[in-house]
Design goal:
6-stranded antiparallel beta barrel; 25 helices; flat
């Protein structure tokens, strides 16, 4: 390390100079000036002193310094070596003695010295690094200071140039104003001279009224003109309409003279100018204006122009003939006010933000380049191009990042009008009592539909495929307690969305639990849905007629879900019923009626209807059919209805028995016909005044849903990295699903999309309501997809495409079978897995040598059996030392194919002779196992 001054060392160590001088003095080194140089030895001495002062265990250093730090040992050894030398011709050889001296030198260093040097090296390197950093920082500061000085000089030069330009501009404007003043005074003097010219002798030429009038063909000068010229008086030739050659006109700079000089007598005009005058009355070189004071320029009404406008107009007249006129025109052009003034502050704009926003449109609204918006998105982790669509939240973040103010786009006029109309009906209408809406929920096969069949005196459950409900059924029943509307929901695990939709549309939830089965997964899920919808719960303990019914077990299971019976001190009513014998059904209806009275259910009867879609389907003969539940108002035949993104006029209203009705009031479910398409299950419907508003609202909703769908969800950086990590190893099974109702489509889509793992994925490319059409079959053929028809079939044209393309089409009526079949198809994409299974182990007791096979192991089979055709491994101390196959398997002298457990045998291992007593020979086989999800 190079020597440094005390001041530099204090700067590196980050401590005051006085403190460092004090420490050096305490260490026994006398320094007084901060500029004195400190050597490396003195630094090490100071370091040792500081360590001893702080108790680092170096107190014996002074004692050790008295002993030598290293010892050098030298060794010298001399020996003799006899070397035979050949003699001359005929003489015997002789021996020669050579002295050999060997010198050795070894140096021994104390361990404490080595440790001290090793400990001091990192500190020395740290000091060097800090000194280098301080020098680099000082150089950077000097360069920054130089750059700032250079910028200040450039700014001063620029200010001087600007002031010079301003001074020149002010001088030019003053000159122009002075010239305008002189011209005005000259025009006044010219007006004063005109009466004197009119007093001259009259002549035919002098009768011309205006100087602008073009002259007649030139004639000989009259006597009066020559007399006037010869008299030497002041004569204005332009006032007489004469054409004077350009060479006799005064120059522009002569305008500075206040009084006009007397014009000299005109020379005889050349022939060419006279001919030009006869043709058009124009002077040579294209000059048609008189520059004399009081000429055309100021007589044509241009006195109102400013200096800049006059300079700009004069620069466009004629051709610049001389250098002076070119300079004047160039100067006048530059003086025009055409410069662009840059804004002095950033402009903050209010940007309208919708649910879906194109990047290019956002950039246009903010008046920035599209690349700036794309760059901001990249910094936020959103991989989007200029033509892609981003969602509302991302757009708000980008706008705020770029310094502008986001403003939510106002609601559409049609939507606002519809919302105001619906709200006014609810607030202004007269409310009356309405029937309760009861949803039947519970686990699959617990008797929900059978209980409802007993109440309605029907047999719906017997007609269901597989005996399970796979749709939402809506019914209203006239009971002795009044009208009650029931919604029957599926209990299968795939119909979670249906159960949630039923819970949201209801007033009371009846939870059906089989007394012989207890609480099941869908039972717990139904409790969660009821709590999420904040509706009261009534538990019906079904199948109480069975011998193994255990209601206490059910109550205990529901108590674990915080559903406490009333007889246990809770607030939930438990009613034991039997859907088979009808036991307790009247008590259940009584409990529902009491609960409805407590809730005081009311609705507006007179007014436009509104409600929710329970289920929807596509009927081949009737078209789109939707089952709706009216919640407010009265739905009448012929009303115009908006239902999600669909609209239409109600052509017919059909109740659950198939009868046509004219109207449906609150809490009454009906099937409606006349919609433009199949609505989504769970959409709200509203009756409107006319078809125009209905169509407008539906189109705006459709456009909004389309824009939302266009928002790319895979352009996030995390999603792209996840896709990159998957690689091309993941297999995809494409599926096209068609079902009879919208709820089944939704349930199938969610259930099938959940199938898969890291190696295989199920992709539902399309799902819809109705039969399998030709377009569906064409899409499946292009995508190589499996076609699933749930309670639907393919038409004739679709069957032709299916036969031609060889598509795999499967029809189902039970959702269990759909999920099982798709799992099998997805498992087929996984391939097979090779597994090794140990079938036997033989213990080597003795090793024999054979001339034919080499080493032969005498073994005892301890586990399983050993087969000659299977591969084996040789294990020594539970470690595999060889893997191969058997060459010979004998029992006594007979060659056998298999030796079972507890029997002795002789084993010869192929191409391995190092078998020892105590080894184990493991026999195994490889089997192929099909992978499953």
């Amino acid at each position: 390390m190079s020597d440094v001054t005390i001041k530099q060392l204090a700067q590196v160590l980050g401590m005051p100079v006085d403190k460092l001088l004090g420490q050096l003095g305490e260490a026994g080194m006398k320094f007084s000036d901060p500029e004195q140089v400190v050597s490396s030895t003195e630094k090490v001495k100071l370091l040792g002193f500081l360590r001893r002062t702080h108790g680092k265990g170096e107190a014996v250093a002074e004692v050790e310094d008295s002993s030598p730090r290293q010892i050098t040992l030298k060794r010298r050894k001399v020996s003799e070596l006899k070397v035979a030398t050949p003699g001359g011709r005929g003489a015997a050889s002789s021996a020669k003695t050579v002295n050999v001296e060997v010198r050795a030198k070894r140096t021994y260093v104390k361990r404490s010295v080595i440790a001290e040097e090793a400990s001091a090296e990192p500190e020395r390197e740290e000091a060097v690094r800090k000194l280098a950093e301080s020098q680099q920082q000082r150089e950077q500061e000097e360069s920054a200071r130089a750059e700032a000085e250079h910028r200040r000089e450039e700014e001063a030069q620029q200010r001087a140039l600007d002031e010079q330009h301003k001074a020149e501009e002010a001088a030019r404007i003053a000159r122009e104003q002075q010239a305008a003043a002189h011209a005005e005074s000259a025009a006044e003097q010219a007006e004063a001279v005109k009466p004197a010219a009119e007093d001259a002798p009259a002549s035919p030429v002098a009768a011309e009224p205006e100087p602008e009038t073009k002259a007649e063909p030139a004639a000989e000068p009259s006597a009066s003109e020559s007399t006037a010229a010869g008299s030497g008086g002041t004569t204005d030739h332009s006032s007489f309409g004469m054409i004077v050659p350009r060479i006799h006109e005064p120059r522009k700079r002569e305008k500075k003279v206040v009084a006009p000089a007397p014009a000299p007598a005109p020379a005889p005009a050349p022939a060419a100018p006279a001919a030009d005058a006869a043709r058009g009355g124009k002077a040579r070189h294209g000059r048609d204006r008189d520059d004399t004071p009081g000429g055309k320029r100021f007589a044509s009404g241009e006195l109102h122009l400013s200096a800049a406008d006059r300079a700009r107009r004069s620069s466009r007249r004629g051709k610049p003939g001389r250098g002076a006129s070119r300079d004047a025109s160039r100067g006048s052009t530059a003086s025009g006010p055409h410069g662009f003034t840059r804004p002095t502050a950033a402009v903050v704009r209010e940007v309208m933000v919708g649910d879906a926003n194109v990047v290019a449109e956002l950039a246009q609204k903010m008046a920035v380049k599209g690349s700036e918006v794309v760059k901001a998105l990249f910094k936020m982790g959103v991989m989007a191009t200029i033509n892609q669509t981003i969602d509302h939240d991302t757009a708000v973040l980008v706008i705020e990042e770029l310094g502008h103010t986001p403003v939510d786009a106002s609601a559409n006029d049609a939507e606002a009008a519809l919302a105001a109309h619906t709200q006014s009906v609810e607030l202004d209408g007269e409310k009356s009592t309405r029937p309760p809406v009861v949803t039947i929920m519970g686990h699959v096969d617990h008797g929900k539909t059978s209980l409802l069949d007993y109440i309605r005196r029907t047999k719906v459950a017997s007609g269901e495929a597989g005996g399970i409900t796979q749709h939402i059924g809506a019914y209203h029943v006239d009971t002795p307690k009044g009208v009650i509307t029931f919604l029957d929901t599926p209990g299968h695990a795939a119909f979670t969305a249906m159960r949630a939709r039923g819970a949201q549309s209801t007033d009371i939830v009846v939870l059906v639990v089989a007394a012989d089965d207890g609480v099941m997964p869908q039972t717990a899920e139904a409790v969660k849905h009821a709590r999420a919808a904040k509706v009261p719960l009534i538990v019906a303990l079904n199948k109480m007629d069975k011998d193994d019914a255990n209601p206490d077990h059910v109550k205990q299971g529901l108590a674990n879900l915080e559903v406490i019976p009333e007889d246990w001190g809770g607030d939930t009513m438990f009613v034991p019923v039997s859907a088979k014998t009808g036991m307790g059904v009247e008590d259940l209806l009584e409990a529902i009626t009491v609960q409805a009275e407590v809730m005081e259910l009311t609705a507006v009867v007179d007014g436009p209807a509104s409600g929710v879609v329970i289920e929807s389907s596509l009927d081949k003969g009737r078209g789109p059919v939707a089952t709706v539940l009216v919640q407010q108002g009265t739905l009448k035949r012929g009303d115009f209805v908006v239902c999600g993104i669909e609209y239409g006029r109600m052509r017919a209203l059909v109740d659950e028995t198939g009868k046509t009705v004219q109207e449906a009031g609150p809490s009454i479910p009906v099937q409606v016909l006349g919609l433009s398409g199949v609505p989504e299950a769970g959409d709200d419907f509203v009756a409107v005044a006319d078809e125009r508003l209905a169509r407008q609202v539906a189109e705006e909703r459709h456009q909004k849903r389309r824009e939302t769908r266009l928002v790319s969800k895979a352009n996030r950086l995390e999603d792209i990295i996840a896709q990159m990590g998957q690689g091309n190893e993941q297999q995809t099974l494409n599926i096209l699903v068609k079902a009879d109702v919208q709820g089944s489509v939704q349930a199938l889509r969610e259930s099938l999309s959940a199938i898969g793992n890291d190696n295989v994925k199920v992709n539902v490319i399309a799902a819809g309501v109705g039969g399998i059409t030709e377009s569906d079959a064409t899409l499946a053929a292009a995508s190589k997809a499996l076609v699933i028809g749930f309670n639907v079939r393919a038409d004739a044209s679709a069957r032709k495409v299916i036969d031609t393309a060889g598509l795999d089409v499967r029809y189902f009526s039970i959702i269990y079978d759909v999920i099982d079949q798709v799992k099998q198809a997805a498992s087929g994409l996984l391939g097979v897995e090779i597994r090794e299974e140990i079938i036997g182990i033989a213990q080597v007791r003795e090793v024999f040598r054979s001339s034919k096979f080499g080493a032969v192991a005498g073994c005892m089979v301890t586990e399983g059996h050993v087969k000659r055709s299977k591969p084996i491994r040789v294990l020594r101390d539970n470690t595999v030392v060889f893997e191969g196959e058997l060459e010979s398997l004998r029992r006594f002298k007979d060659l056998v194919d298999e030796v079972r457990n507890g029997m002795e045998c002789g084993i010869a291992v192929k191409q391995y002779n190092d078998v020892k007593a105590g080894d184990q020979i493991e026999c195994f086989e490889r089997i192929e196992v099909a992978r499953t999800l």
